[in-house]
Amino acid sequence: MGVLKKFEQRLEGLVNGTFAKVFKSEVQPVEIAGALQRECDNNATIWNRERTVVPNDFIVELSAPDYERLSPYSGQLGDELSGMVRDYAKQQRYTFMGPIKVHLEKAEDLDTGLYRVRSRTLASSTSQQQPERPERPTAARPNQAPGGYGYPQPAAAPPMPAAPPPGRPAQAPSAHRPGAGPMPGSRVRHWIEINGTRHQISRPTLVLGRSTEADVRIDDPGVSRRHCEIRTGTPSTIQDLGSTNGIVVDGQHTTRATLRDGSRIVVGSTTIVYRQAEG
């Protein structure tokens, strides 16, 4: 069962109690929950292959009428939304720098039924978060400077290898350099991971979509029947097939992008992780 569906079911159990009035507002809590999921996907920062950090402090701006209706329940609603974000992060293997918080704020420039989500990454003030930080981020979203958290400076580049003696050819390194192209004669395997399920890519192209005719079917109302296509090669690429909602690759809205091992693709509210490895 999806995270949003579980969130809806938890709220349904509260409709006859204090949450009854919440569902009379123009903005439904499940809409906010979906927006928080997208906020995580669009602001995910890849630190290394084992860790992707997402925001943990969210501000939901509401119109004055919607805020007045929801504010009496902001504490309970904030707790439910925080729990939903935690469940979604666990499913997507995201991590946080500190505790998850969701706040409601009034925005005078918004009309009834409209809302806006802002997010940021706040480090915990306790020392318990310190050991979880990687040595340095391996990638960051454009315009998202990691200042203020005391990240160490990048390590110095390794020294160049000594030149071989005269008349003796240079020896090729025995290990494959990270980030280099495939070794001659090696075979590269390609696959994608969706909600923990691996789908092998055994053909040059792989079509993803909601249709049963797609190579990999994604049961998501935000996904078009033929949404996008992955093309394996050197390098591998992804191409939008004229979908309604488009694709987001490593935090960037695009119609075509180059894929690398660990690239995160968002279609609708579904996150796909692209993988490749030699062997």
Provide the descriptors you would attach to this structure in a database record.
six-stranded antiparallel beta sheet; five-stranded mixed beta sheet; 28% strand; alpha+beta; 279 residues
List the uncertain runs. Answer: 14-24, 127-161, 167-181
> Would you tell me the overall average pLDDT?
75
Secondary-structure element pattern, one letter each: HHEEEHHEEEEEEEEEEEEEE
Distance between the termini: 34 Å
Fraction of residues in β-strands: 25-35%
Strand element count:
17
Instruction: Give me the secondary-structure category.
Output: alpha+beta
Largest sheet: 6 strands, antiparallel
Q: Quick one: overall form?
A: elongated
The strands making up the biggest β-sheet line up spatially as 8-7-17-16-13-14
Rg for CA atoms = 23 Å
Tell me the helix content.
Answer: 10-25%
The number of helices is 4
What does this structure look like?
18% of the residues lie in helices and 28% in strands. With 279 residues, the chain is an alpha+beta fold. α1 (3-12) runs antiparallel to α4 and α2 crosses α4 (74-92). It is elongated. The model is unreliable at 14-24, 127-161 and 167-181 (pLDDT under 50).
Structure at a glance:
It is built from four helices and 17 strands. With 279 residues, the protein is of the alpha+beta class. The chain has a six-stranded antiparallel beta sheet with strand order 8-7-17-16-13-14, with no helix packed on it. Strands 10-9-11-12-15 form a five-stranded mixed beta sheet, with no helix packed on it. A three-stranded mixed beta sheet has the order 1-2-4.
